[in-house]
Amino acid sequence: MRHYSPYEIISGKPDEGLVLLADHAMNRLPPEYGRLGLADGAFERHIAYDIGIEPLVRQLSAALDAPAVLGCFSRLLIDPNRGEDDPTLIMKISDGAIVPGNHPITDEEWQNRLNRFHRPYHRAVSQTIAEAAAASGKAPLVISLHSFTPAWKGIPRPWHAAVLWDNDPRAVFPLIEKLEAPGDIVVGNNEPYDGALRGDTMYRHCMMPGIAHVLIEVRQDLISDAAGVAAWAERLAPILAELNAMPALHAYQRYPSRTGAYDG
Ligand SMILES: [Zn+2]
């Protein structure tokens, strides 16, 4: 079996104190998993990954000289943006149909996917954030990038981008203000999804240690080709640079999670 890396770290200047994350960057999985028993084309769709995010994060990382961590396995295999005890960690159902490679699944295979994909990805995220903290001498700012489908159950979504968060507002309000400033896009605030999810990537790496963060979702049809990706990289890069220059976003401050008390 060839070695399969479950993550990729794009190097940047850790002393700038900015870290980019892309949990769902890729639709790949090791060849022995086939297509998890799904039809041809399933892995080209949004159910397998966040369309447009890999090239967008590569361009943002280059423009900002910021380190980035990319997840290199499809979320259909195991979802890196779910806690280890989340029942949707390995999806039984996708698009209303059973995922044959995921259900039924043995405890051994469940543990295998945690050990081989999920945990190494999160170790890479922890390590990259720790390096940025050490090199910059302050709390880093973490920006997580995702994308969402333009329509849900046949209803078009009005937002061009969305800002999802739990309860740490530090990066959120300045970001929304800067995104809305040109007046040409509609920005969702905790829509179409609520950003408070116990055990997810932002909870674990940012809410718990008190690191300022925000999760940005871009609508997939806007970044489905190279021109769209370039336009959104150009739109977001200066905004993220402005956020990263704000001292308030580089202090450790823990906010209570809307999902309940912290365990640790
Ligand atoms: Zn995503």
UniProtKB/TrEMBL annotation:
Pfam families: FGase. It comes from the Bacteria. GO terms for molecular function: hydrolase activity. The keyword Phosphoprotein does not apply. Keywords: Hydrolase. The keyword Hydrolase applies. This is N-formylglutamate amidohydrolase. The lineage of its organism: Bacteria, Pseudomonadati, Pseudomonadota, Alphaproteobacteria, Hyphomicrobiales.
